[in-house]
């Protein structure tokens, strides 16, 4: 790292921008490089009256708070934000942690004198990441013009303060070996000038005037987010790095890459490969270079993630990056129907339109957060595993989440379609006037070498039947083949009569409410034999007629053994004896198919010949469809079978009543898991 | 580089190979899509001020996704116009073979028809772009069979070469400049997903980032229609009126242009007011 201070005799001045994380890192590095000890002093640009309350607020970091100073008889209040990303706060923390002397040398200013200061957003302000690359000198040269004039400087207040601080430094510098002075960049050059010029008159450093009253307040969301640099989560990451004594080497762009890894790590089934991360890092870097930036913004980070991972990942990353240390949480409350963009619930305090809250310094690159999310904390929940009970007179309260069910049925239709298409094959025939599906170049070339050259073309022809009954079962094999997933099933009817599907899964409870006996959970499917569409209800009897018992297994066929889970004796003790779980699913599909079984399988599965012979012996055909014909998003959604449960007390199987109740009760909760 | 500078044939590993000719992007004003254009140029390491390729940095082979008619091709053309580099392109379809991606044996059109068939080697647009340097665009790449796509694995990683099964040679950049100036991008139609036409994972991972194009903003749509010289002010106003009345949320550029063309043709044949013609066009919606 380049130079970290501007030196004047034994005064080491660190010019900073307030509430900018990179400058907190600069102060960390400056204190470390100087190896400060008890003979040195840390001086900060704060009035002495604010110090005690600032220290109290610092004890609660990373929680951000505001120290508010008020003077009787005045409406304005002065605000001193206490946030980890502020360099002055960082300096105070270093003095506390290392037991170093500390002086607050700014002038006491009545808040009313500060009301003229307006913070303006300057989109062209040089990226403060440059200060870590080029040093404070170089950065000061870049911003020199901006900090010499309003709104960075307000006269005569700032000149009063410069004079006061310079006088205080004159008094203090003989008393200490070195002084590390942290102050706003707008004051550095005037103070240096004052220190260089002879003293013409002695400025009194005795404070006169009313003593301000100070209190600590919690900021509303709008103000809070302005104290958290560009990306709130990055400040939280800095806090963690600081606690591990790694704050000096902290870099924002490294932190956002870590955030992406953390999001991926929280969802193991997302399984993004190395190339995704490489593309993400490179694309983000390219965007920064394109805009001549060093520090990534929230939007750049999220768009890079959405482009290089997928859109849901980008949304998850956005929510994570906007969150901060439990003080800010983000929840999606809906989706804009026209654009598909997420909408967050705004929560800001109303403004009465008057500038009551003033500050000594502005962050000239303040971000405006227009849409702000906050989550109301939910009551503590305990684990409640859903009980897969059999037919009974009790009401049945666990359901497959309807949007997942609809999606699964659509994918089932796609599997049928792909199976039908795979029956067609390509043949090569001699050219007879029509180019059909194109010239068969290889065969034509080979023919041209022979005595009787011909031109050959390709034609597509069906292999026997091309239509597959949509009522036929579809077996999905996701893997891994060596999974020790447990058998489960979904059923139909109250009381339960038929089984819709037979699955091998791992159960994960997601949200539970012990008191309300409700919750959300997920079956992570290793494989599923879907005997019929999940969306079929009363019309299932019409669709299958007297074949229902032949086409769908009845509930009576499955047995629950305490401690061992569920079993299917007819299959596992018969032809399925000793077979791996996924072969049992295929055999079950053969058992209940009429003529065709569709197997959608990943590359690791290879259906053995004897199972094909078993199907052929029953006059049935197995159609294999590669899982790779479904993109990653589809595969991910297919594998996560979401269930919801609540004590609705339905005693009759009535989907028009049940489903609206489910959607009404669980839509909010499910938004964080299921995005259509 | 002007067209006269493109060599007709080159010698690659001892084989005389005829090169593909670059595509000439249509010269028309590009409207909107500023953000997507910026993403494309950032992915391709283009300097924002000079529109020149960076000498350092890692270019990415981005993929455009979006429904038909939203301007994926036009976006690539605009990038090519701004960079002023040759653009080669291929249209993906189900019959593409691995040979089509590299070198093909084609009849030599310069020999007389009465002579025995003479074949020459012709490089695909992709092979030409790799060898000569330039921009390459693969449209509807998800239509291409997996076995042909496998050729792209060696193009899209550090090797930057493509193998020809026909000749047994690997076609790579002719020099360092060609290597540095090769850029790849592709486009997919997500609507083909339902028929199983999805990219295999290893191509999906090599064609990142994905830049999504949604339906254009109504303002941009109207500007594009206004750029159409045959479209009069009266018809444009009628289109805006009917568009708002119908509260159309999503309409591609292609659909809008088709509706306008149909409306004007209808008006020429049947008379009536511009609004009646546009209303009829919306009812029939020939763009769908």
Q: In terms of topology, how is this protein built?
A:
The complex is a heterodimer of chains A (676) and B (288).
Chain A: E1 6-8, E2 11-16, H1 21-34, E3 40-47, H2 51-58, E4 65-70, E5 77-82, H3 87-98, E6 102-106, H4 130-134, H5 136-147, H6 157-172, E7 178-184, H7 185-196, E8 213-217, H8 221-226, H9 232-243, H10 252-266, H11 274-290, H12 298-308, H13 311-322, E9 332-335, E10 342-344, E11 357-358, E12 398-400, H14 402-421, E13 425-430, H15 441-448, E14 456-461, E15 474-477, E16 486-492, E17 498-513, E18 518-530, H16 539-544, H17 548-551, E19 559-561, E20 565-567, H18 569-572, H19 581-592, E21 596-601, H20 609-617, E22 621-626, H21 632-639, E23 640-645, H22 655-670
Parallel strand pairs in A: 2-7, 3-6, 3-7, 5-11, 15-21, 21-22
Antiparallel strand pairs in A: 1-2, 4-5, 4-8, 9-10, 12-23, 13-14, 15-18, 16-17, 17-18, 18-23, 19-20
Chain B: E1 9-12, E2 15-18, H1 34-43, E3 63-65, H2 72-83, E4 87-91, H3 98-101, E5 103-107, E6 119-123, H4 125-132, E7 135-139, H5 146-149, E8 162-164, E9 169-171, H6 176-181, E10 183-188, H7 201-204, E11 210-212, H8 218-227, H9 233-245, H10 253-270, H11 274-284
Parallel strand pairs in B: 2-6, 3-10, 3-11, 4-7, 7-10
Antiparallel strand pairs in B: 1-2, 5-6, 8-9
